[in-house]
Amino acid sequence: MQAMWQRIAKPDILIFLEASFAVSTARRRLNWHEADHEEQYRRLAHARQHADMVIETDALSPEQVLEKALDHLKELHS
C-alpha cells in the first residue's frame, strides 16, 4: 500500500533520505541486488512525492545530513 507511511507514523514533517544502491549497500552492509534497492524506491515513491524535504545523502556524512534536516526545520519554524 503506497500510503502505509501515513498510516503508521502520521508525520507532521516528512524528510526523505535518498541514497544510491552502491552507497546504501556499503553503509548498511546489505546483501541486496540492485533490483531490491529499486523495489524499495518503488515502494517509497509515494512518501518521496509527499516529502517536505528530500536529502540526497551519498556525498554527506551523518552529521551533514542532520545539519541539513535541522536547517530545514528551523526555516519552517521561522
Structural class: mainly alpha
Mean pLDDT: 88
Strand content: 5-15%
How many β-strand stretches? 2
Note the total helix count.
4
Shape: flat
Binned, the helix content reads 55-70%
Please, how many domains? 1
How are the strands of the biggest sheet laid out side by side? 1-2
Order of helices and strands: HEHHEH
Which residues sit in consecutive blocks of at least 5 with pLDDT less than 50? none
Explain this structure.
With 78 residues, the protein is mainly alpha-helical. It has one domain. Helices cover 56% and strands 10% of the residues. It contains four helices and two strands. The chain has a two-stranded parallel sheet with strand order 1-2. The longest helix is centred in the middle third of the chain and has 16 residues, at 34-49. It starts with a helix and ends with a helix. 0% of the residues are buried.
Question: What key phrases describe this protein's structure?
Answer:
78 residues, 56% helix, two-stranded parallel ribbon, 10% strand, mainly alpha, 4 helices
In short:
The chain has about 80 residues and is mainly alpha-helical. It has four helices and two strands; from the N terminus they run αβααβα.
Layout of helices and strands:
Layout: H1 4-8, E1 15-18, H2 21-28, H3 34-49, E2 53-56, H4 62-76
Parallel strand pairs: 1-2
